[in-house]
Amino acid sequence: MRLFIEKGWQEEAALIGLLYQTPIRIREALQLKKSDIDGREIAVSGEFGACYADQNGKPYRITRQLRNLIDSVNKNSDTIFTKKMNSYVLKCNRYDRTLRLHELRREYIVRHVP
């Protein structure tokens, strides 16, 4: 993520951080707005209409650094991500061929679900 920030790709870095820290699908992450993030908690509905929550029913949290990065992206707008999904996937694959955005959700679930 730090390498993307150094290159000036804040949106891509925010997307990678969001996908790494939460099990949100890429499509739903791209529709996320700044108003959906309350402090460090993310209130976004999943594919079937239910809000994303952990096993205890609490909303997922992100780090302060990621929250600050998200706030710095597109300061004048409520939207975080302005491009289409293909643009982010291609840019990340072009930069690092081993980085698969779709796999970040699976890695989160493997790490956190017993």
Describe the structure.
The structure is a single chain. This protein has 6 helices and 2 strands. The chain has 114 residues and is mainly α. The chain has a single domain (2-108), classed as hpI Integrase, Chain A (Orthogonal Bundle). Strands 1-2 form a two-stranded antiparallel ribbon. It starts with a helix and ends with a helix.
Briefly say what this structure is.
This protein is mostly helical.
Could you name the key traits of this structure?
mainly alpha, hpI Integrase, Chain A, two-stranded antiparallel ribbon, 6 helices, 47% helix
Task: Tell me the layout of helices and strands.
Layout (H helix, E strand, L loop, with lengths): L1 H5 L3 H12 L4 H5 L6 E2 L2 E2 L21 H9 L12 H11 L5 H12 L2
Antiparallel strand pairs: 1-2
Helix pairs in contact: 2-4, 2-6
Strand element count: 2
Helical run tally: 6
CATH topology: hpI Integrase, Chain A
Share in helix: 40-55%
- Which CATH-level-2 architecture? Orthogonal Bundle
**Estimated share of beta-strand residues:** under 5%
CATH homologous superfamily annotation: Intergrase catalytic core
What is the arithmetic mean of pLDDT?
80
Structural class: mainly alpha
CATH hierarchy class name: Mainly Alpha
Q: Order of strands in the sheet with the most strands?
A: 1-2
How many domain regions? 1
> Rough shape?
globular
Order of helices and strands: HHHEEHHH
- Please mark out the parts with pLDDT under 50 across 5 or more consecutive residues, or reply none: none
Radius of gyration: 14 Å
Major sheet attributes: 2 strands, antiparallel
Gap between N and C termini:
27 Å
